[in-house]
Design a protein that fits this description.
7 helices; 57% helix; single chain; mainly alpha; two-stranded antiparallel ribbon; 4 strands; flat
């Protein structure tokens, strides 16, 4: 397990927690004297309150073949809730790094910038990455491809070079993982993952 998590900080060359404040625009704010302060519109001299209502999504009822199928489902739910936030910030950081590197005028400058980001991210996330299990790590690889359109292998190759990518792919293979894992929307498991992500994003998971 210790060897396994050591290569995970490399993934976070494309991640940092920058999700910011999650308050909704137009959210009702409680007042100390009672009541709520909300957004509103002025229409023909009348004040019309505006309070957004969270969208509710409904999927088919889950049907489990047996107890093992039931347990696998809830294990997937737990793993998704654990690693999906990482995949989201990986997407955000990947775009940021890609954008910054495009403005740098030399390969040396790009590598120096990437190395600096790697040190910062390793310091911030190493303790959290130690807690990931094998199944959570494999799910994270898949979700990174879903969110960025590039596999973990391709990301490492872009920012760290082909030899580094090959090295970490070899390490992953030892632990029955694959940095080249793609997210195929047509598989039954990934269809379920897509549904769970929608529920997660709507606060229903």
């Amino acid at each position: 397990m210790k060897v396994f998590y050591k290569f995970l900080p490399l993934l976070f060359l494309v991640s940092v927690f920058c999700l910011g404040n999650n308050k909704l625009w137009g959210q009702a704010i409680p007042l100390t004297e009672g009541g709520y302060l909300v957004k509103g519109y002025q229409i023909s001299g009348d004040s019309i309150p505006y309070i957004p209502i969270r969208e509710v999504v409904i999927f088919r009822q889950r049907v489990f073949k047996n107890k093992r199928d039931y347990e696998n489902y809830w294990r997937l739910v737990r793993n998704l809730k654990k690693v999906y936030p990482y995949a989201l910030v990986a997407r955000a950081k990947f775009r940021e790094i890609d954008s910054v590197c495009a403005t740098l005028d030399s390969e040396f400058a790009r590598r120096r910038y990437v190395a600096k980001v790697q040190r910062e991210l390793s310091k911030e996330f190493e303790s959290q990455l130690k807690e990931l299990t094998f199944s959570q790590g494999r799910l994270l690889f898949k979700l990174i491809d879903r969110e960025t359109g590039r596999t973990t292998y391709e990301i490492i190759r872009q920012f760290r070079g082909g030899l580094t990518a090959m090295f970490w792919q070899g390490i992953a293979t030892v632990f029955s993982s694959d940095l080249k894992t793609k997210f195929d929307n047509e598989t039954e498991e990934n269809k379920l993952i897509n549904e769970l992500i929608i529920e997660y994003e709507h606060g229903q998971l």
